[in-house]
Design a protein that fits this description.
The chain is α/β, with parallel strands linked by helices. It has 20 helices and 12 strands. The chain binds S-adenosylmethionine.
Length: 452
Amino acid sequence: MTAKKINAREVALNVINEVEVNGAYANIALAKEINRRMSHGQLSDQDRRLITELVYGTVKAGNTLDWMLNQYLSRPLAKVAPVIRNILRMGIYQLFFLERIPASAACNQAVELAKKYGHAGTVKFVNGILRNAARSPEKIAYPDRNNEPVKYLALKYFHPEWLIERWLGRLGLTACEALCQCNNSTPPLALRTNTVKTNRNLLLKQLAEEGVTCEPSVWTPEGIVCSGHPGLGTLKSLQEGLFQVQDESSMLVAHILGPQPGEFIIDACGAPGGKTTHIAALMGNTGQVLSTDIYEHKLIITRENAARLGLTNITTQALDAVNLGGMFPRKADRVLVDAPCSGLGVLRRKPDSRWRKSAAMLKDLPKLQSSILNSAAECVKAGGILVYSTCTTEPEENQEVVSAFLHSHPEFSLTQTGQYLPGQQRPDDMLQLWPHTDGVDGFFIARMERQA
Ligand SMILES: C[S@@+](CC[C@H](N)C(=O)[O-])C[C@H]1O[C@@H](n2cnc3c(N)ncnc32)[C@H](O)[C@@H]1O
């Protein structure tokens, strides 16, 4: 029996609708749909690539596509039915951003979808708008870069204006533009060698044999950066626990914490265990890492990772980290607080994440981050180390949380965090990494020491 031929654009439309109408996460909804169709043999590699490109592009460029469509519409786009709106968005995305797709194909396919999901009126409407856009692309004139930089950057690079306003004020136009550009690029896949089972050279060799194009990371001694690879799930080296997927900047955190064999270490916001398993490996599978998280279902993944990597020095406990201090007072040699944060340093990882953030988060999160840090700090022994990290770029969640903590905790002092980097050291007291200047995920790390 031959597998039913599927329409890649229709699959993409269904995923985009899931994201827009039901609030699904684009990467999860897309992976689910692709896996389901692959298992039924319905998708070629070419289909898979086109669907991914259409979903990621349409979701990521949402604001710009709506602005573009409004240049050709005589009524507000918001009044158009969601499914038709998404057909239009996907159509105009192909017209303006996917050069290899002929305009006629983009229009015809959109019309076919409108026939299936709309009525005679909507078919005419979709056809009219997209053919007009294809005929008159000059109607799309971006705001002037120097006179209206916020609007220009927001539309040109698909970012919310509130975020551009923030970054523009702090970074200036050139750097802000570079950051936005970087947020639209595909990040490389980074792997952390599991040093309990192998070493980086051996793993590089095995990965090459498995068809992975990769090279050593310059940031950490166990990091590997891949520029091409087959499906991760197919790699024997993954099943054998020879590596953990983890971005290079995230790998720096455990090095800066500096775990030693035999110690007792608490990872206060530990799931799904990227840093927990790194700490445990740096301890040579000795001592104990207590990895806590508020969600038990996430700790299951931590335990699965630990088992796959062959690490037996990890225990997990579901708890609210704001209560940690009373539970393990002065018991730990080192404590890591990898706090829940806005994630503004990792926007390039998920196409819809930039549209899920709000300025309000930057008011609410610091309160939780401070409560967790204050409580977790009580677990640190005299002479012990406390590290606070986030994957965001915003001072309210980073420098300001740490400064307020240090102000109210004179028994802790900041050590020069940049000095503890495993590669090239830096003079920074608190370390802020940026995608556009450092080429890694945006990350913040501060290392503190308890005197008494
Ligand atoms: C940035 S993620 C941690 C990532 C993890 N350290 C890693 O490297 O894989 C933050 C974690 O904090 C957890 N979390 C949020 N609020 C918490 C709380 N009040 N107490 C403990 N964990 C919390 C979240 O469930 C999330 O897993």
